[in-house]
Specification:
Structural class of chain B: alpha/beta
Distance between the termini of chain A: 42 Å
Largest sheet of chain B: 7 strands, mixed
Strand order of the largest sheet of chain A: 1-2-3-7-6
Number of domains of chain A: 1
CATH topology of chain A: Rossmann fold
Oligomer: heterodimer
Shape of chain A: globular
Distance between the termini of chain B: 50 Å
Shape of chain B: globular
CATH class of chain A: Alpha Beta
Number of strands of chain B: 14
Number of strands of chain A: 7
Radius of gyration of chain A: 19 Å
CATH superfamily of the largest domain in chain B: Thiamin diphosphate (ThDP)-binding fold, Pyr/PP domains
Largest sheet of chain A: 5 strands, parallel
């Protein structure tokens, strides 16, 4: 990791956190319809991976997708407007929080279906491979999705076709309200990789550098034609499964509960000489401003025209 | 009979609880139907459990405490797996209630319903019974967007071997749920999430409502409106508004959409000569179009005008609040259609 990457990572981590905290408040005020699932606490994963991707690389995301979208470079104003169901949203207000997407940025969408991304990511990687492009696809999924049957199908298919795809499991310890330790017969997700003849690594998902290093190796492997990698990031979500969740399943003993990847990275980046404390402060201030502006933008945006109900069905 | 108000949601809970008390082969299985499995602080000293969720809408809250984790079973998020298990258990002696958290998730759960549960009895020459209740949730209006708001009961209803029930009020919800659990067939019990808070009279006693029988909730002579689930309220509003212009509307709450009650609908159309069907499904290949086709076939000579269907448009469910509102059939949309059908009545009355 170099200084430039570290500064970018710290900026995106802060943008994600301020964004999610703001969505939490805005939802509380009743300005956001529907279901919202917040990413706060898992910033090290999205940023550690996305620091190594560009717009031509693809990602598939989850119902907890705001962090992925921000780190993949989606327009933050457009995201906030989308989440409020406004005309200037990335999807014209027609998708909402669970369907934030920007295909032009390689972001193939947050997804309301748990496990919805495995096949999509394999397909994006198939495009890359077939067209001979030097890119990868990354499939983000949660520990909950790892128990869907399509996990097996997606990983097996990607492996036999030698696809340049990286499966990144964000193990935040809970699939909705059920602990991973109950829902999974294997102790880790990573160890299942051996069944698919691909490397499986488990990293500290609160440590950006650990995520970054594992991703870098997986990308090199994918781009050299050796196929997919499974990376399990051990992390934690600060908020509930959805906004309004009482989180009765959480305990004080939950691993990573008292950790926060953002100050951890700030400290490390300063210690490593990647950024100064002043630079970190400035990044935090700027990120907060970005989110304040996004909220203002979204609130000012009109509702979609009613005719929009009938458009975008077919090309 | 006890006079008592319950919400739509609590009526369903009460039905499940009563059936589980009555019959020890009844189990509830699904993702987070309790929640918090293996979380120590949710276990009482006496070994009883608290739930973390009791279903994402809280509909099965408290059930794990009464019945334990052996009968209120949290699954991984693995719909194909646990619906397969539910069918397998149903075929071999249990009477499962399996929850599909949102009907939109049927993509991952369909094969056990479509190709296993619905067909085993037929394929095995009548030598199997599949007493499985699939509880699921449909409907737009909660801002839950394209993958959590669809209305798919019609899709289930198109499968031979599957019965589909769509309650419109708390009383029916309890009676139909108890009937569904008693059934020796696959019954999809589809709940409109927008009705969960609706209150109504619900007797405490155990009672069932016959599956396959519609309910004439308002008698009338000039126009029949058949409505499903939440749309029954829309039909009632339309009937009230038309009554002010002296138009007499019969409202039929279909209650069961597969097999739907042809006798009640045909009798009504023979009386009124006019039919509107309201169905929140997308407009093609749904329950409304099926009713229209059967009525056109069997009651053609009684019709005084075209059969009208009022459905959601042929679009995914939009997220933005104003678009979602425009998506859902409402009284204004139905009245617009009704005006075409009753134009001749209006002429008569103004002469």
């Amino acid at each position: 990791m170099d200084r430039k990457e570290a500064l970018w990572i710290y900026q995106k981590m802060n943008e994600i956190r301020f964004f999610e905290d703001e969505v939490h408040r805005t939802f509380g005020k009743g300005l956001i319809p529907g279901f919202v699932h917040l990413y706060a606490g898992e910033e090290a994963v999205a940023t550690g991976v996305m620091a190594l991707l560009d717009d031509e690389d693809y990602i598939t995301s989850t119902h907890r997708g705001h962090g992925h979208a921000i780190a993949k470079g989606c327009d933050i104003n457009g995201m906030m407007a989308e989440i409020m169901g406004k005309k200037d949203g990335l999807g014209g207000g027609k998708g909402g929080s669970m369907h934030v997407a920007d295909i032009g940025k390689g972001m193939l969408g947050a997804n309301g279906i748990v496990g919805g991304g495995f096949g999509l990511a394999a397909g994006a990687a198939l495009t890359v491979k077939t067209l001979g492009r030097d890119n990868v696809a990354v499939c983000f999924f949660g520990d909950g999705a790892s128990n869907e049957g399509v996990f097996h199908e997606g990983l097996n298919l990607a492996s036999i076709l030698n696809l340049p795809v990286i499966f990144v499991c964000e193990n935040n310890q809970f699939g909705e309200g059920t602990p991973f330790r109950y829902a999974s017969a294997s102790e880790t997700v990573a160890e299942r990789a051996s069944a698919y003849n691909m490397p499986g690594v488990r990293v500290d998902g609160m440590d950006v550098e650990a995520v970054y290093d594992a991703t870098k190796e997986a990308i090199a492997r994918a781009k050299s034609g050796k196929g997919p990698t499974l990376i399990e990031c051990d992390t934690y979500r600060q908020y509930g499964h959805f906004e309004g969740d009482e989180q009765k399943y959480k305990t004080d003993q939950d691993p990573n509960k008292d950790r926060d990847p953002i100050p951890e990275f700030r400290e490390k980046a300063i210690a490593n000489g990647w950024m100064t404390a002043e630079e970190a402060d400035a990044i935090e201030t700027a990120a907060e401003k970005t989110i304040v502006e996004a909220t203002a933008f979204a609130e000012a945006s009109p509702l979609p025209d009613e005719s929009a109900l009938y458009t975008d069905i077919f090309a | 009979m006890t006079e008592r108000k319950l919400t739509f949601m609590s009526a369903i809970t009460e039905a499940m609880v009563q059936s589980m008390r009555k019959d020890e082969t009844v189990i509830l299985i699904g993702t987070d139907v309790a929640g918090g499995a293996e979380v120590d602080h949710l276990v009482h000293d006496d070994g009883r459990y608290d739930d973390a969720f009791g279903g994402v809408f809280g509909l099965s809250k408290g059930m794990v405490t009464e019945f334990g984790r052996e009968r209120v079973i949290d699954t991984p998020i693995a719909e194909h797996g646990y619906f397969g298990a539910a069918v397998g258990a149903a075929a071999t002696g249990l009477r499962p209630i399996a929850e599909l958290m949102f009907n939109d998730f049927v993509g991952f759960a369909l094969d056990p319903i479509l190709n296993q549960g619905a067909k085993m009895r037929y394929m095995f020459g009548g030598k199997a019974k599949i007493p499985l209740t699939v509880r699921t949730v449909h409907g737009a209006g909660a801002g839950a967007a394209a993958q959590h708001s669809q209305t798919l009961y019609g899709m289930f209803g198109a499968i031979p071997g599957v019965k589909v029930v769509v309650p419109s009020n708390p009383y029916d919800a309890k009676g139909l749920m108890l009937a569904a659990i008693e059934e020796d067939n696959v019954v999809v019990f589809s709940e409109d999430k927008m009705l969960y808070g609706m209150k109504g009279d619900v007797p405490e006693e155990y009672y069932t409502i016959e599956i396959g029988k519609a309910n004439v909730v308002r008698e009338g002579t000039e126009l029949t409106i058949v409505a499903i689930g939440k749309m029954v309220q829309v039909a009632q509003e339309v009937a009230n508004r038309l009554a002010k212009g002296d138009i007499s509307v019969e409202v039929i709450d279909l209650r069961t959409i597969a097999p739907w009650d042809q006798e009640t609908v045909l009798n009504s159309v023979e009386k009124t000569g006019r039919l509107i069907v309201i169905d929140e499904s997308n407009p093609h290949n749904n329950t409304a179009t099926d009713i229209a086709s059967v009525v056109a076939d069997k009651a053609f000579d009684y019709l005084d005008g075209p059969i009208k269907t009022v459905c959601a448009p042929n679009t995914p469910v939009p997220f933005a609040a104003n678009l979602e509102k425009a998506y859902i059939p409402d009284a204004d949309k139905v009245l617009k259609v009704a005006e075409e059908l009753i134009a001749d009545l209006r002429k008569v009355s103004t002469i």
